[in-house]
Amino acid sequence: MDYGKLDAALARAVDEEDRDAHARDLDVLVRLGSPPTADQRERLLAFDIEGAGGRTDLTATLSRHGIEALADLPWVRSIALAAERGPM
């Protein structure tokens, strides 16, 4: 996995997930280098990331393995742990 693409909070969460037998999927923000091509949109759909269209900032809920696979794609610029929102 290209840890250089993960923010510090996500890198810690991924490491914790490796040690946790009951790990949950993580909410992440995925930043692409440019709007996705048709082939890239298909790859994103394989991760259940829909609605990419012409956007470069996407949200997703991914397992550690999904994060690992996305981080290895050359057209993914960065992946960050999404901030948890408290009650309003």
Description:
By secondary structure, the protein is α+β, with helices and mostly antiparallel strands. Helix content is about 35%, strand content about 20%. It has helices at about 10-20, 40-45, 65-70; strands at about 25-30, 55-60, 75-80. It is globular and about 35 Å long. The model has no long low-confidence stretch (mean pLDDT about 85).
Largest sheet: 3 strands, antiparallel
Residues in β-strands, percent: 15-25%
Distance between the termini: 36 Å
Biggest β-sheet: strands ordered side by side in the sheet = 2-1-3
- How many helices? The count is 3
Mean pLDDT: 85
Helicity range of the residues? 25-40%
Work out the oligomeric state of the chains in this entry: single chain
Number of distinct beta strands: 3
Poorly predicted spans: none
Q: Name the overall outline.
A: globular
Which value, in Å, is the CA radius of gyration? 13 Å
Supply the helix-strand structural class: alpha+beta
Question: Order of helices and strands, N to C?
Answer: HEHEHE
